[in-house]
Amino acid sequence: MEKIEIKYDKRKLLPIIIFFAACIIGSTYFVFFTDKFASNQNIKFLIIPVNLFALYMIFTQMKRLLDNSSIVTLTKNYIEINEDGKPLTFSWTEIKELRIEKRQSGKSEVDILSIKSDTRTGEVNISPLDKNVDDIRGLIRNYRP
Question: DSSP label at 8?
Fold first, then answer.
């Protein structure tokens, strides 16, 4: 129990990738290969940015799926959060405030781990991780002196 690394839950990322891939395939088929939309040039031009956005979403989710780096790392000496690819390390003694809070993100709520010290702050979304919020709270309680 020296070091715990919490990573993205791959089971939560895969349905998002499948959804956007199905959107690309389905929309391309309907716009270019059905009689109803094949003659409308405006829809053909509209589907290009929509599919590019879906490709971007697939790319970002695949990057998370294949990346094996930890998002939250806990040890007896420090906690490290990976904030958009930039790891922030806080020793337990320098932390002034550590909270897990729910925030609105569109129509859904996400859980945010927020850490503040005298010199810096860091936040990371812990909803898509392989441990749930209660597990992360328990681990922080165990590791924080």
Answer: B
Looking at residue 107, what DSSP letter applies? T
pLDDT in tens, 3-54: 899 998 888 888 989 999 999 999 888 888 887 777 778 888 888 999 999 9
Top CATH class of 72-143 equals: mainly beta
CA 16 – CA 120 distance, rounded (Å):
33
Confidence of residue 111 (pLDDT cuts 50, 70, 90): very high
Beta carbons of 46 and 53 less than 8 angstroms apart: no
Question: How far apart are the C-alpha atoms of 18 and 125, rounded to whole Å?
Answer: 22
Single-letter residue type at 59 = F
| Residue 59 to residue 71: CA distance in whole angstroms | 19
| CA dist., res. 60 & res. 43, Å (int) | 26
Query: Mind listing the pLDDT tens digit for each residue in 128-144?
Result: 888 999 999 999 998 88
Tally of residues, the chain:
145
Phi, psi of 57 (to 5 degrees): -65, -40
Which residue type, as a one-letter code, is found at position 121? T
Domain extent listing, the chain: 9-66, 72-143
